[in-house]
Specification:
The chain is an alpha/beta fold. It folds into two domains: 7-58, no CATH class; 67-423, Rossmann fold (3-Layer(aba) Sandwich), CATH 3.40.50. The chain is built from eleven helices and 13 strands. It has helices at 7-22, 24-34, 40-55, 64-71, 137-143, 155-169, 231-234, 279-295, 343-361, 374-378, 411-423; strands spanning 85-89, 123-127, 148-153, 175-179, 186-190, 195-201, 206-212, 218-229, 242-246, 255-259, 262-267, 305-309, 367-371. Strands 4-5-6-3-9-12-13 form a seven-stranded mixed beta sheet, sandwiched between helices. It has a four-stranded mixed beta sheet with strand order 7-8-10-11, covered by helices on one side. It has a two-stranded antiparallel sheet with strand order 1-2. A hairpin with a 4-residue loop joins strand 5 (186-190) and strand 6. Helix 1 packs across helix 2, helix 1 (7-22) crosses helix 3 (40-55) and helix 8 (279-295) runs parallel beside helix 9 (343-361). The radius of gyration is 25 Å and the shape is globular. Its main location: membrane. Residues 132-418 form the Trichome birefringence-like C-terminal domain. This is Trichome birefringence-like N-terminal domain-containing protein. Belongs to the PC-esterase family. TBL subfamily. One of its GO terms (cellular component) is membrane.
Length: 424
């Protein structure tokens, strides 16, 4: 076992380091006066200590080893479009398995519930014109040292967080420090890197209320107020360094959209004298409001990074989720096999345009980025649980919305790491 100095020695070293850091001129005078008293070995040790405490004190978020390690990581051309490319074979497979990651939720543990094929694990995303590095948990944790990252959105946002949690757990075992009563909101902490990873549940990002019937049971019809944000997640935004926002699949139901006392219109409703709007138009209204609320957040950190993750496509075939639809494919699609005019692509474009429009008009310095997974994941009909999700309350129904863990959703964290590096 490696030996350690006594507590008195360590305490003296920390105390002197603090003095050096706070008063470099005093440090220099002390060295000139007392250098002759020190042995050569101690002189060398002292010089090294001073160099690292004074020179590297500038960045409290990254340790020396992190800085050296990160400098060796491959750089990505900032002009490269990470989201334009194709899936290629990769014999290495996933960084983790459903056995090695203990935090995989039961509904995403596809192999536990009978999935037999493994081929869908042996693909990686290759952008045209550059290479997207394989996810490196050590490098990622170095980038986010001392920071708080929150995934804000619905169950697919949670799916992404759970994927990232498994990837990072190959480097450091996190502590599960909070879950609410419904297991909607979770907080994990990586003590060695002082990094907090959390998820905040919200169906629509903005304020919402479900209508109830005479028995006070939910009807599945919602009222949204784009003039108000959903405070359940927004109240924690001032403490957040990196926010990944996304919400999509709850929008495909009857929804009345309001702006304060004004009713703007409704989605999937047949109410008389009511303006009918498409889901795409609904996304425009909600996401425009979302980005406006974030930009006007006075208590938020000036260097808050907000990442929009675009809509993640479902792959139901031969029916919808409640009419026998399934997703039984075992290989990716090529670009020629996907519909670039699909509703998902239209919604994806609406999301991005709202972000671009709001940020161009707003002078306040905030940092935004797009994690554009829509087209990437349209090519992965093979990555969903399908019938292998173990839901005893919904037997006979297939899950073609969420993603198996491990699975192609792990690529989202490779994109996320590339985005964070550009802001570092």
């Amino acid at each position: 076992m490696r030996g350690y100095a006594s507590w008195d020695d360590r305490h003296a070293t920390m105390k002197s380091s603090s003095i050096f850091r706070e008063n470099p001129e005093k440090t220099e005078r002390w060295m000139v006066t007392n250098m002759w008293r020190l042995t050569p070995l101690l002189v060398s040790s002292l010089c090294i200590t001073i160099f690292f405490t004074v020179v590297y004190h500038q960045n409290p978020f990254k340790s020396i080893s992190d800085r050296n390690f990160l400098s060796l990581q491959p750089q990505i051309d900032p002009e490269c479009d990470l989201f334009k490319g194709h899936w290629v074979r990769d014999k290495r497979g996933s960084l983790y398995t459903n056995s090695s990651c203990s935090t995989i939720p039961d509904s995403k543990n596809c192999f536990k519930h009978g999935r037999q094929d493994r081929d869908f694990l042996f693909w990686r995303w290759k952008p045209d014109g550059c290479d997207l590095p394989r996810f490196n948990p050590k490098a990622f944790l170095g980038l986010v040292r001392g920071k708080k990252m929150n995934f804000i959105g619905d169950s697919v946002a949670r799916n992404h967080m759970e994927s990232l949690l498994c990837l990072l757990s190959t480097e450091e075992t996190p502590k599960d420090i909070y879950t609410d009563g419904e297991d909607r909101n979770r907080i994990w902490y990586f003590p060695n890197h002082d990094f907090t990873l959390s998820t905040s549940w919200t169906k629509f990002l903005v304020s919402e209320q479900e209508r109830v019937d005479g028995n006070k049971k939910g009807t599945g019809v919602f009222d949204l107020d784009i003039g108000k944000i959903d405070e359940k997640w927004f109240k924690d935004l001032p403490n957040t360094d990196i926010a990944i926002v996304s919400a999509a699949h709850w929008f495909f139901r009857p929804i009345f959209i309001h702006r304060g006392d004004e009713t703007v219109g409704c989605i999937y409703c047949n109410s008389p004298n009511m303006t009918q709007i498409t889901p795409e138009e609904g996304f425009k209204l909600v996401y425009s409001a979302l980005f406006k609320h974030i930009l006007e957040c006075e208590k938020c950190k000036e260097d808050l990074v907000t990442v929009l993750r675009t809509i993640s496509p479902a792959h139901f075939e031969n029916g919808t989720w409640d009419t026998g639809g399934a997703c039984s494919r075992t290989n990716p699609f090529g670009e020629s096999q996907i519909d670039l005019q699909s509703n998902e692509m239209k919604i994806r474009t609406a999301q991005i345009k709202q972000l671009e429009g709001v940020t161009k008009r707003h002078k306040k310095a905030k940092q935004f980025a797009v994690l554009d997974v829509t087209k990437v994941m349209l090519m992965r009909p093979d990555g969903h649980p399908n019938g292998n999700w173990g839901n005893k309350w919904m037997k006979g129904y297939n899950d073609c919305v969420h993603w198996c863990l491990p699975g192609p959703v792990d690529a989202w964290s490779e994109f996320l790491m590339a985005i964070i590096r550009r802001f570092s």
